[in-house]
Design brief:
- InterPro entries: Glyco_trans_20 (IPR001830), Trehalose_OtsA (IPR012766).
- By secondary structure, the chain is of the alpha/beta class.
- It folds into 2 domains: 254 residues, Rossmann fold (3-Layer(aba) Sandwich), CATH 3.40.50.2000; 210 residues, Rossmann fold (3-Layer(aba) Sandwich), CATH 3.40.50.2000.
- Helices cover 43% and strands 21% of the residues.
- The protein has 16 helices and 18 strands.
- A 10-stranded mixed β-sheet has the order 5-6-4-1-7-8-9-12-11-10, with helices on both faces. The protein has a 6-stranded parallel β-sheet with strand order 15-14-13-16-17-18, sandwiched between helices. A two-stranded antiparallel sheet has the order 2-3.
- Strand 7, helix 4 and strand 8 form a beta-alpha-beta unit.
- Helix 8 packs across helix 13.
- It binds the ligand O=P(O)(O)OC[C@H]1O[C@H](O[C@H]2O[C@H](CO)[C@@H](O)[C@H](O)[C@H]2O)[C@H](O)[C@@H](O)[C@@H]1O and uridine-5'-diphosphate.
- The ligand O=P(O)(O)OC[C@H]1O[C@H](O[C@H]2O[C@H](CO)[C@@H](O)[C@H](O)[C@H]2O)[C@H](O)[C@@H](O)[C@@H]1O binds next to strand 1 and helix 1.
């Protein structure tokens, strides 16, 4: 840290750790799950940076501390704020609205009030950590008001924002009663990054329709109080990736290889192991995937004694109604299919409602002949990239929904529309019975892409563009 603050500050809803305080007041922490954490952790460890975020527990007040080579700055949220800002506005309003209204978004004014208040608290915490002229990189839909609030406190900063989830088409976005405030909040940034080119164009279209600002290509011109141009904002795609080499290395270790073998043995050494790994979220298309798999068993096109589906559904947002309903549906479906096609000592579906560490994930990827990523909408989907990075044996087939950000990049995958159950059944069978030569060719192509476009490249490219942007005074 410099003498007056950090030169790079990341602001995200979550700290990269979950904290608990023991009775004696000592703080214990564990790495927390999720794609954002996986993506940003290596970036932060390489930089002299601070990470501002919520601890993951209610009412927990902890002083900033160092962990995993970074300064962690906890933001306290009360139980009511978790309910209204995190579970409510972030995950029951914005999440469904930004994911094609797969579930119905709820609009509540008291949730919006909490969202504003919490965004203000994050902006103040970031302002207190940043050195003069520092870069502050704000992450994701939970914090869309932070760029503007932060610029009001610290006009000297360069502010970046990255949206990890899709940005919806105007026709959906304009349902949001606070749509203008959200756009203005984001426009406090100098650079706004999205996963796909389509997300960036949706945003620019919303700016044109909901404000009087002029746009040209990726550039939006902001106006001062006198109506003259004051600065430029750029909105552009920066598809996120993973620490590909780390995953490749991990999957080559004797321990992970042995564990992969053990997993297959424990499954009864079936001919075909299929795998799904997702947070238990309605955007991930878990029901559609299980339905397709169940129909293949029913049609006799897959033999339940020779194939199995392992579905990791890690617990997520369990206090939100739509997630509780999804769990009921998925578990009912799994129970029906297992009741119908399971035998003593063999389940048609191995359903695991747990969260696993990276080495177990790598072993699962290695053990799977076919990886099923069938999201109805997904900002990127890092699981798809991790599967590819783990397969240094050039084996394995990836069935990938065209509604993921990953689909824009991963030529070589078997692309599917998860709403088309028949099409998905064909793709699953194609993956299961693919000619080994074709499989190798596809996997090599996938691996070239994932190993070259890794998370370091993602952050360097975003931070490179942000650092090269002219400072505000150029335009005044
Ligand atoms: O923090 P949670 O509410 O437990 O949720 C976990 C994370 O889920 C979302 O991930 C997104 O970011 C990934 C990385 O860019 C991307 O691959 C995926 O498609 C997105 O869904 C969310 O955006 C994060 O903020 C959450 O931490
Ligand atoms: O049991 C689990 C399930 C998932 N993950 C990790 O969580 C991330 C999921 O990211 P993705 O982009 O696929 O989806 P998200 O959950 O962020 O929407 C990946 O890095 C997975 O390896 C994990 O570590 N353990």
């Amino acid at each position: 840290m410099g003498k007056d603050g950090f030169s790079l500050v990341v602001v995200a809803n979550r700290l990269p750790v979950d904290m608990t305080v023991a009775e004696d007041g000592s703080v214990d922490w564990q790495r927390s799950p999720g794609g954002l954490v996986t993506a940003l952790e290596p970036v932060m460890q390489d930089a002299d940076g601070a990470w501002v975020g919520w601890s993951g527990a209610a009412g927990l007040e902890v002083e900033p501390f160092d962990a995993d080579d970074m300064r962690l700055v906890p933001v306290t949220l009360s139980a009511t704020e978790i309910e209204r800002y995190y579970e409510g506005f972030s995950n029951d309003t914005l999440w469904p609205l930004y994911h094609d209204v797969i579930a119905q978004p709820a609009f509540h004014r008291h949730w919006w009030d909490a969202y504003r208040r919490v965004n203000q608290r994050f902006a103040e915490a970031a302002a207190a950590q940043a050195a003069q002229g520092a870069i502050v990189w704000v992450q994701d839909y939970q914090l869309q008001l932070v760029p503007k609030l932060l610029r009001e406190i610290r006009p000297d900063l360069r502010i970046g924002f990255f949206n990890h989830i899709p940005f919806p088409p105007l026709e959906l976005f304009q349902q949001l009663p606070w749509r203008r405030q959200v756009i203005e909040g984001l426009l406090g940034a100098d650079l706004i990054g999205f996963q796909r080119a389509g997300d960036a164009s949706n945003f620019i279209r919303a700016v044109r329709r909901l404000t009087d600002l002029t746009t040209r290509g990726q550039i939006i011109t902001m106006e001062g109080h006198d109506g003259k141009p004051s600065r430029h904002v750029r909105a552009a795609p920066f598809p996120i990736s993973i620490d590909s080499q780390r995953f490749d290395d991990l999957a080559r270790t004797p321990e992970v290889q042995a564990r992969a073998k053990e997993i297959r043995e424990d499954l009864g050494d079936p001919e075909i192991v299929m795998l799904g790994v997702d947070r238990l979220d309605y955007t991930k298309g878990i029901r559609h995937r299980i339905k397709a798999y169940g129909e293949l068993l029913q049609d006799g096109r897959l033999d339940p004694s020779k194939s199995t589906l392992v579905q990791v559904a890690s617990p997520s947002r369990e206090n939100v109604g739509a997630y509780q309903e999804l769990r009921e549906h998925v578990e009912g479906l799994v129970g029906r299919i297992n009741g119908e096609y399971g035998e003593i000592g063999h389940s048609a579906i191995h359903y695991l409602h747990h969260s696993y560490p990276p080495d177990e994930m790598a072993a699962l990827y290695l053990a799977a002949d076919v990886m099923l990523v069938t999201s109805l909408r997904d900002g990127m989907n890092l699981v798809a990239k991790e599967y590819v990075a783990a397969r240094s044996d050039d084996n394995g087939a990836l069935v990938l929904s065209e509604f993921t950000g990953a689909a824009d990049e991963l030529a070589g995958a078997l692309l599917v529309n998860p709403h088309d159950i028949d099409g998905m059944k064909e793709a699953i069978l194609h993956g299961a019975h693919m000619d080994p030569k074709d499989k190798r060719k596809r996997m090599r192509r996938l691996r070239r892409r994932v190993l070259s476009d890794d998370v370091a490249k993602w952050s360097e490219s975003f931070l490179g563009v942000l650092s090269a942007m002219p400072s505000r005074t150029t335009y005044v």
